[in-house]
Amino acid sequence: MSFPLSYLADFDSLAGSPRLVGLAVAIGVGIAFGFVMERAGFGRAQKLVGQFYGTDLTVLKVMFTAIASAMVGAVVLSGAGLLDLEAVQFNYPTFLWPMIVGGVVLGIGFVVSGYCPGTSFVATASGKLDGLATVLGVVAGSVVYAEVEPKLGAFPTSGKLGVFTLSRWLNVHPAVVAALVVALALVAFTVAGWVERRGRATSQSRNESPSLSTEGVPT
Q1: Lower CB density within 10 Å: C or N end of the chain?
Q2: So where are the chain's domains?
Q3: CA distance linking residue 30 with residue 52, whole number of Å
Q4: SS3 (DSSP) at 66
Q5: pLDDT of amino acid 7
Q6: Among 55, 30, 43, CA closest to 116
Q7: Which pLDDT tens digit goes with each residue over 90-105?
Q8: 132 burial class (0-12, 13-18, 19+ CB within 10 angstroms)?
Q9: Among candidates 88, 62, 63, which has minimal Cα distance to 75?
């Protein structure tokens, strides 16, 4: 039988052992995910904002590695008949315009705070006050949006394109998409290394530039 097994499929049931198994799996995965993020340095704003200065692209490398590895693993397991891709895909419809606006707002918040919602919780768990401030900002923003959304009319559901996956969009087999993503990741890692070297060299040259001398200035 393909995973997820029927015993584990009903994670949203209100009672019974499937619910307990789902919660146990979620807690275990959450702890492991937070541990890996902290070890990768994602609990430090300095590490995260390095993306925007071009001095440290660890976030790109770690997240792209995770995406490519998970995609290849899913395709291999599906090909072996051990995983049902349709059962594990995130089938949420695409709403183009609100998603673009939401992405821009999230990006601005990322730059200003140095954290995304996930890494802010990692930083908070590590005892960082700036992480806690970001978490409180996320909560406050969610409350404000809940109050404002009814006044936005049809905008939150505008640009509806249905459920989109890369394989459906490109009309190719998921294995082809996985190969393309791996190739893109390799290119991104190469470019990221070049950007990091240039960014660090520029930063170092600025730090080593001689300060203005006062010699010869009449007193």
Answers
A1: C
A2: 17-200
A3: 27
A4: helix
A5: 45
A6: 43
A7: 777 888 899 999 999 9
A8: middle
A9: 88
